[in-house]
Amino acid sequence: MSETPVTGPFRISIEATPAGVALDMTHYLHTLVLALAEAAVEDGPSLLDDLVAIADLERSARHQGLDSHATHERDEAVQNLLDELVDGGSVPVYGEQVLRLVAALRRAVALRPIPSPREAGAA
User: Fold this and answer.
1) Residue 26, SS3?
2) Residue 94 DSSP one-character state
3) Its pTM surpasses 0.70
4) Which segments of the chain does DSSP mark as H helices, in order?
5) What is the spatial distance between Cα 24 and Cα 12, in angstroms, rounded to a whole number?
């Protein structure tokens, strides 16, 4: 059963899963893809350069580890792109919707017992 406690500026739906909940952020991601498309129209070569640089940094980060220089550079490059496209990547939740989100999360986890880490698939 899915519930949509946050209706704007970005809809957030919640669905109970065996190990917790799934947050459906499709509306926000839709906005992000539209912003990427618009950026491609405005300056496609520059956007492509940014994305290729991020991909290169990601490959380096995978080889160097979580606390590597490449990881920090990648994270900074991704954040800079998000800042340009969608004001930083945060999904705002306002007023009464904050309380509805909390209540929906509580209901979702109250529907069934939370499984132990072993039941949830942890090694």
Assistant:
1) helix
2) -
3) yes
4) 26-64, 69-86, 96-110
5) 6
